[in-house]
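## tool: complex_structure
## caller: assistant
## args:
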Amino acid sequence: MKFADFISPEAIRAELTADDKEGVIREMVQALLDAGRIRKDQMESIVRAILNREELGSTGIGRGVAVPHTKHPSVADLVGTVGVSSEGVDFNSLDGERVHVFFLLISPPDRPGDHLRALENISRQLRNDTFCRFLKQSKTAEEIRQLLDEVDNNQFWS
Amino acid sequence: MDQPKQTRTVTVANHAGLHARAALLIAKLASEHEVALALVKDSQAAEATSMIQMLSLGAKQGDELVLEATGPRAEEALSALERLFAEKFYEEDDETKARG
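## result:
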């Protein structure tokens, strides 16, 4: 699976302003709403579901990255976006690091395979130090889009 | 002191596969038992201290993993991990989703 298969380019945010977990999640879900990827009347339900999932254990996976997510019946396909915070946010990650990069995912309840493949793709790419560093340093959504595009086209590993 | 490495093969039983929360449970269990733990799928190995490495395995329902534990409590840790996999990471809605 490629980033292009689940990241909505127009919902990418390079300069997240929120400084806490709930704020970041709201900002990113709002970005998906603004991009027309989720329904307005479902926004609050989606935010609550993602926060409830965080209660079960942080989705901070290390290297300054978190993958807040939920299953939600209002989406027909896996929907996702990327957000970067230059200040970083305390996300209770396993390694204790502040989180600078967020991949937010909303998946249809009956498609756990897609969610797993998206996590696999994100994690595999994050093992590349250069990709990780560039992502954290991105200042514009365009830079992030370019970076994901290069990774999708295997230009990053050469 | 070198500790012998203990191994055990487990199967991913839960419908959702080795996702983020499952990986976190594995990391915590290894840490609680003070063992160095690696999960090996085919020839790819992931350290249990790294969520990123574990999620990179993309282990889905039915996949086999070899668990390699090193430390004085390795056997105990492997038995606990075996239960964790068999219990499907305690996912309450797993059965209904699997049938649905």
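## assistant note: The mean pLDDT of chain A is 95. Helices of chain A lie at 21-34, 43-55, 112-126, 129-137, 141-152. Handing back to user.
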